[in-house]
Amino acid sequence: MAEVVEEEEKKSPLIKILMFVIGGVLLLVIGLGIGYFLFGGEPETDPSSEVNQIIEGKDKGLQKKKEMEEKKKETEGEDGIMKKNVKAIPEIDSYETTYFEFPGDFTTNLKGSRKFLQVSVGVSTQYDEKVMQTVDQHQLSLRSEILSTISDFTEEDIAGSDGKKKLSVKLREVLNKKLDQLKEFPGIEDVYFTAFILQ
């Protein structure tokens, strides 16, 4: 019996030491695990980057404040009175000119003369492109109006650039009147001569 008691006494300090070591390692692992979950899950940030973010944030705040002050100066004059908000005018034209040239030449006698006039005629508008489609559609009746209007002019009437301008204005009036009679929009704004030959 004495031998059994001695064996148990020898085993018990060894078992106690093993239990303490295993318990300590287990506590260490648990502590590390809790620490990782609480503090180690986020990536480590560089303190200098945090400082830069703070400085940039302040810079952005100062920049916004300066922009607000500049806008205030723009809307207020030097004396502090509000200015009228004026919009800038765009550089490009907002209207596009559309052209149509009647095919072929117009040849007709001049009033009270043996001479005749041969012209090529074009028209333009800044209205819708549909105006030119309408001119093309009613080309036959418009050609007739052009010929009869030209035949009402004399040699003296069409002499020089003033005469050509008078003929151009008269043709515009006549063509728009005809379009109106045809229940179409009278949108011809200018009449041009691309050829003008007196024979």
> Which regions are unreliable across 5 or more consecutive residues at pLDDT < 50?
none
Backbone shape = rod-shaped
How are helices and strands ordered from N to C?
Answer: HHEEEHHHE
Q: How many helices in DSSP terms?
A: 5
The CATH superfamily of the largest domain turns out to be: Band 7 domain
Range of helix content: 55-70%
CATH architecture of the largest domain: 2-Layer Sandwich
The average pLDDT is 79
Tell me what portion of residues adopts beta-strand conformation: 5-15%
Quick one: CATH class of the largest domain? Answer: Alpha Beta
Instruction: Give the structural class.
Output: alpha+beta
Distance between the termini: 155 Å
What fold name stands as the CATH topology of the largest domain?
A: Tetrahydropterin Synthase, Chain A
Q: In this structure, how is the largest beta sheet organized?
A: 4 strands, antiparallel
Overall number of strands: 4
List key phrases describing it.
four-stranded antiparallel β-sheet; 199 residues; 5 helices; 4 strands; alpha+beta; Tetrahydropterin Synthase, Chain A
